[in-house]
Design goal:
With about 700 residues, the chain is α+β, with helices and mostly antiparallel strands. Helix 10 (about 335-340) links the parallel strand 11 and strand 12 (about 350-355). The radius of gyration is 31 Å and the shape is elongated. Strands 4, 5, 6, 14, 15, 16 and 17 form a seven-stranded antiparallel sheet that branches. Strands 7, 8, 9, 10, 11, 12 and 13 form a seven-stranded mixed sheet that branches. It holds the Pfam family VWA_3. This is Voltage-dependent calcium channel subunit alpha-2/delta-4. Keywords: Calcium, Calcium channel, Calcium transport, Disulfide bond, Glycoprotein, Ion channel, Ion transport, Membrane, Metal-binding, Signal, Transmembrane, Transmembrane helix, Transport, Voltage-gated channel. One of its GO terms (molecular function) is voltage-gated calcium channel activity.
């Protein structure tokens, strides 16, 4: 058996070396060795350079948003509210719609739409923005008309921003009255029931920009009087409040009747981060609540004040706003003592009250609680009221920010933009949003702290990662980004989609995957902790890397270099693998010599790599990377921007590998048909992304297309 095996391996080896020409290639590289420079990669320097480039790219996005905020605030300052304003605007659902007499419908004038590659080939209008309204908002409400009229001033700024920075994508203004102005304008399609459910005020970016981090205890009355519809409304209210919380907030829920119980016993006496997993967990538990017994609110209030005080004193939680949400159908007993003991005179905790049901007997009591604790009181008698009434608390919490005019820039965690354009299915892109609040500057209402809305812009993460190109990271190298909550923004092992039938769908927790779930060798969380704290540093680990879609595993030693991207809550990591990943080859070749070899027919470049920037200028979009490189070298397109270092490496590789074509061709001509028809094709790839191939059989005979 051994001699068979040896004979077999010898045979295999000689066929493969003969037809691939690997020995010739080795010799060719050996010949040019004297002129080569081999440079070691300095990981820390690399990660700092990438981080600076990312920072300046993100700063441009922030500047664009700041210009919009300024324009919106000035427009509001100069706008007099007019309750009988008549004004036609482009409603994104009605545009280009005609009635039976072939006239355009009201609010639905002609709106020219053209496909645009920069916006995933959607039909858009890059000269105007248009307005989207959720179904439950009346499209000619005076508040809406005034807001839309005032925000027309943003159109020229949108266009100007896009001209200044062509890498910008969607820019928008979400108003506190409920309309959403989106640039470039698109046609918005309702869902199958004809409903438009998208409400910009429920989106993560809006809520994060409108309020600061908050610790919230929700207290819900589950006494017998809450049975039936009241319980349903109360549950819906809790779920709506939970939906307004994000990773930077902390929460717990207490249900009370004769006694107080935390709806999740494991979270007794603490607050937990309101991340997706915890919110979903709470929603399931809320759904199971039953109404019975008699309600005594004092114990529940006492318990809540204690938790909030402990967290405040220990420096845990959001360290910003604290609030109690009281959901009940009426409060009778004497609760003044509780507030006196725990909340007065400082009133560090706001108390918001939601009176459920149509009864008005207890309204004064419930209102008194809110008004004496810097809160807000609303009565919710139907399910339809819930959304609007819950949103009110955000305006109250944002008041101090508005009065001080703190324009905080916020960056959201990674999310997919599918919700925005569910009507037009497309490749799902991961993005992050940069957003900023817009305040009313009018002197007479300054102390009211009126929030007009939020301006935002999307940044596709792949644009950021283009700044850390693969070829600079060597074999098995990669870059990744994470947030200060430890969640991944972008990582080669983040697989956010799964297949359901033929459709790709996002996994429920795709945007809260922790760094420790993909870099699991980091057992003591040294890397994770350092990156969350925004430190700069270096670490090496032995890792197992799956390749070939998980069919094989490699054992490597990787060096991790990381630093923060200043001005954002993000950190960047760069991974280089020991061995091949540590060095770069630099050859010098003249353009003439290299160009001749680049023009050979069976040569291609990795199209997903960026040798030249072809996606900004419309005239360059049709070029493949190879065509772009050739035009750049011949000087035909002087305004092409290309990566000189990478183009230099390609030229060098083209020259060194050029003799392979002749070698393969000679072999192909001398092949005897029957003996070695098993060899179909030879190909090679270099680390600069250059590929060459040669067929030994007619293309119709290839077994693996």
């Amino acid at each position: 058996v051994k001699s068979w095996a040896d004979a077999f391996s010898g045979e295999l080896y000689s066929i493969v070396t003969k037809y691939s020409g690997s020995l010739l290639l080795q010799k060719k590289y050996k010949d040019v060795e004297p002129t080569l420079k081999i440079k070691e990669v300095d990981g820390l320097e690399l990660v700092k350079k990438f981080s600076e480039q990312m920072e300046s790219m993100l700063r441009r996005k922030v500047e664009a948003v700041e210009r919009l905020v300024e324009a919106a605030e000035d427009a509001d300052l100069n706008h007099e509210y007019n309750s009988s304003l008549e004004f036609d605007y482009y409603n994104s659902v009605l545009i280009n719609e005609k009635d039976e007499n072939d006239n355009y419908v009201e609010l639905g004038d002609e709106f020219i739409l053209e496909p645009n590659e920069h916006f995933n080939n959607l039909l858009v209008n890059t000269t105007y923005s248009d307005i989207q309204l959720p179904t439950n908002v009346y499209n000619k409400d005076p508040d809406i008309l005034n807001g839309v009229y005032m925000s027309e001033a943003l159109n020229p700024i949108f266009v100007d921003n896009f001209e200044r920075d062509p890498t910008l994508t969607w820019q928008y203004f979400g108003s506190s009255t409920g309309f959403f102005r989106l640039y470039p304008g698109i046609k918005w399609l309702p869902d199958e029931n004809g409903v438009i459910s998208f409400d910009c005020r429920n989106r993560g970016w809006y809520i994060q920009a409108a309020t600061s981090p908050k610790d919230i205890v929700i207290i819900v009355d589950v006494s017998g009087s809450m049975k039936g519809l009241r319980m349903t409304i109360a549950k819906h209210t809790i779920v709506t409040i939970l939906d307004t919380l994000g990773e930077n907030d902390f929460v717990n829920i207490i249900a009370y009747n004769d006694y107080v119980h935390f709806i999740e016993p494991c979270f007794k006496g603490i607050l937990v981060q309101a991340d997706r997993d915890n919110r979903e967990h709470f929603k399931q538990l809320v759904d199971e609540l039953q109404a019975k017994g008699v309600g005594t609110v004092n114990k529940a209030l006492t318990e809540s004040f204690k938790i909030l005080r402990e967290f405040r004193d220990a420096g845990q939680g959001g360290l910003c706003n604290q609030a109690i949400m009281l959901i009940t159908d009426g409060a009778v007993e004497d609760y003044e003592a509780v507030f006196e003991k725990y909340n007065w005179p400082d009133r560090k905790v706001r108390v918001f009250t939601y009176l459920i049901g149509r009864e008005v007997t207890f309204a004064p009591n419930v209102k008194w609680i809110a008004c004496n604790n810097k809160g807000y009181y609303t009565q919710i008698s139907t399910l339809a009221d819930v959304q609007e009434n819950v949103m009110e608390y955000l305006h109250v919490l944002s008041r101090p920010m508005v009065i001080n005019h703190d324009h905080d820039i916020i960056w959201t965690e990674a999310y997919m933009d599918s919700a925005l354009f569910a009507s037009q299915a497309q490749s799902l892109l991961l993005m992050t949003t940069v957003a900023m609040p817009v305040f009313s500057k009018k002197n007479e209402t300054r102390s009211h702290g009126i929030l007009l809305g939020v301006v935002g812009s999307d940044v596709p993460l792949r644009e950021l990662l283009k700044l850390a190109p693969r070829y600079k990271l060597g074999v098995h190298g990669y870059a990744f980004l994470n947030t200060n909550n430890g969640y991944i923004l972008s990582h080669p092992d983040l697989r956010p989609l799964y297949k359901e039938g033929k459709k790709l769908k996002p996994k429920p927790n795709y945007n809260s995957v922790d760094l420790s779930e993909v870099e699991w060798e980091d057992q003591d969380e040294i890397l994770r902790t350092a990156m969350i704290n925004g430190e700069t540093g270096y670490l090496s680990m032995d890792v197992k890397v799956p390749v070939d879609k998980g069919k094989r595993v490699l054992f490597l030693t990787n060096d991790y270099f990381f630093t923060d991207i200043s001005g954002t809550p993000f950190s960047l990591g760069v991974v280089l693998s020991r061995g091949h990943g540590e060095y770069i080859l630099l050859g010098n070749t003249s353009v003439e010599e290299g160009l001749h070899d680049l023009l050979q027919p069976d040569l291609s470049l990795a199209n997903e790599w960026i040798y030249c920037i072809t996606d900004i200028d419309p005239d360059h979009r049709k070029l493949s990377q190879l065509e772009a490189v050739i035009r750049f070298l011949t000087g035909e397109e002087p305004d092409l921007e290309c990566d000189e270092e990478l183009v230099q490496e390609v030229l060098f590789d083209a020259v060194v590998t050029a003799p392979m074509e002749a070698y393969w061709t000679t072999l192909a001509l001398n092949m005897s048909t029957e003996t070695e028809a098993a060899v179909e094709m030879a190909f090679l790839g270099t680390r600069a992304g250059l590929m060459r191939s040669a067929l030994y059989v007619g293309s119709e005979k290839i077994s693996n297309r």
